[in-house]
Amino acid sequence: MTALARPTHGRMIGGVCAALAKRFGTSATTMRVIFVLSCLLPGPQFLLYIALWVLLPSESKARQAW
Fold this sequence. Notes:
The chain is mainly α. The chain has one domain (about 15-65). The protein is built from 4 helices and no strands.
């Protein structure tokens, strides 16, 4: 199992959707569409995105830790 980290390539804003897509084996575009659609529902989706952006290490920093 790979560690969850924001990729340095193929990211749009923070790389959170790209990291989640890589972890769950789907495309980043699919994950972005799911996120945008989920923002239409009530809930803390945007706050969760910001929290993951802050908490998930960048791929380059994750490699240095290993």
